[in-house]
Amino acid sequence: MIYTDNAATTQLSPTVAQTVAECMNKVYGNPSSLHSMGKEAAKVLFEARQTIARCINCQPREIYFTSGGSESDNQAIRSAAHAGKKNNKLHIISTAIEHHAVLHTLDRLKTEGFEIQLLDVDQRGWVSPRQIADAIRKDTCLVTVMYANNEIGTILPIKEIGEICRKNGVVFHTDAVQAVGHIPVDVQKDNIDLLSLSGHKFHGPKGVGVLFARKGTALENLIDGGAQERGKRAGTENVPALAGMAQALKEACDEMQQVSRQEILLRDRIVRGLSQIPHSCLNGDRENRLPGNISFCFEGIQGESLLLKLDEKGICASSGSACTSGALDPSHVLLAIGRSREIAHGSLRLSLSRYNTMEEAKYIIKTVSQAVDYLRSFSPLWKDKLSGKKPFVL
Ligand SMILES: *Cc1c(COP(=O)(O)O)cnc(C)c1O
């Protein structure tokens, strides 16, 4: 199988798998225990914290381990919102293209009386720092903008947005799940107060993530219990998975330049190849996008049918985000960049990793082109367009 669904999740790095297995077998003490086996586990945990802190340029004590990106998003946003509420600040700024872990948390806060302002994006999926500056009010308690979009790969101007938030004294959170380990992220340079990342998006284990919270930023517990994570996230730590996440992030950061160069080569080759398909379009920015992201819409077909056809031919891909697959509604991200519902239904996302090859890229171009042709030949909608009964959109 050719795996091109790395925005949904990634293959575990083989060296990380080894670390996790060894740790599971040997380092089974509870890091909170006072005996030597507990201390050994605590040491592994601290080293993981240190490694991750170095990768995003923060202090180890600003790293809070969580169960993944979704939990980190929830805790970050709820914390900043409820801290704001104490000062009568109920206004939150975000964007229309966030992950559902952010959007659904904001929906929940709306029922608590918060005013949620979702900024529109342009046709590339970009928000300008100017829009943020214009939206900030005296009662704004939080700006949350994703670092890079998981469906269309657009990279947002996080450093500039962070600067504006800092200047205005507004807490700034970024869902950096698609960015960390793939493009340089530095919480100091980027002026970030709260950041979410997830282990399984950079060849680490699933079910572990990090919430970075700058010293002095209010944090509220989602899970009460023991005093783990400086009292902010209870529950015995998943030491093997956390050690694995740290190692995976170190590998990803050490090899970032070389890997992204290779991914960009494959990405641009596939984009060029698929652009040859008539009545198709690339989603997102051509240049300013994640190294591994390819997102297309093809007129006259259903994305789901294309996925099944590609799966038959040995290619694992996605129509958009794994979280919306299965739902019949077209992607909120594609609608936000101005695609019609009809066009948004014909979407394909290929997300690459360091394990993909040029041979695979060539096979993907050939196979997707043939599959689109094949599906169009059965499509009543496509027939209507060919005969002129309905207009072409793309
Ligand atoms: C995958 C993803 C998440 C969710 O992370 P989990 O670790 O799966 O909970 C959140 N935000 C973005 C942008 C993602 O791509």
SSE blueprint and pairings:
Layout lengths: L1 E2 L10 H13 L9 H21 L6 E4 L2 H17 L5 E5 L4 H12 L3 E5 L9 H7 L4 E5 L13 H11 L2 E5 L18 E5 L10 E5 L25 H16 L1 H20 L4 E3 L10 E6 L4 H10 L2 E2 L15 H5 L4 H4 L2 E5 L6 H21 L1 H7 L8
Parallel strand pairs: 1-11, 3-4, 3-5, 5-6, 6-7
Antiparallel strand pairs: 2-8, 7-8, 9-10, 10-12
Helix pairs in contact: 1-7, 2-7, 3-4, 5-6, 8-12, 9-12
The structure holds pyridoxal-5'-phosphate.
Description:
α4 links the parallel β3 and β4. This protein has 394 residues and is α/β, with parallel strands linked by helices. The mean pLDDT is 97. Helix content is 42%, strand content 13%. The chain starts with a strand and ends in an 8-residue tail after the last helix. Bound molecules: pyridoxal-5'-phosphate. Pyridoxal-5'-phosphate is lined by residues 68-70, 99, 101, 146, 150, 175, 177-178, 198, 201, 209. Pyridoxal-5'-phosphate (PLP) binds at residues 68-70, 99, 101, 146, 150, 175, 177-178, 198, 201, 209.
Helix content: 40-55%
Strand order of the largest sheet: 2-8-7-6-5-3-4
Number of helices: 13
Report mean pLDDT, rounded to a whole number.
97
Q: Which small molecules are bound?
A: pyridoxal-5'-phosphate
Ranges where pLDDT stays below 50 over 5 or more residues in a row are: none
The counted number of beta strands is 12
- What's the oligomerization state? single chain
User: What structural class do you assign from the helix and strand content?
Assistant: alpha/beta
Question: SSE string, helix = H, strand = E?
Answer: EHHEHEHEHEHEEEHHEEHEHHEHH
In percent, how much strand structure appears in the residues? Answer: 5-15%
Describe the largest sheet. 7 strands, mixed
**CA gyration radius, whole angstroms:** 22 Å
CA-based shape: globular
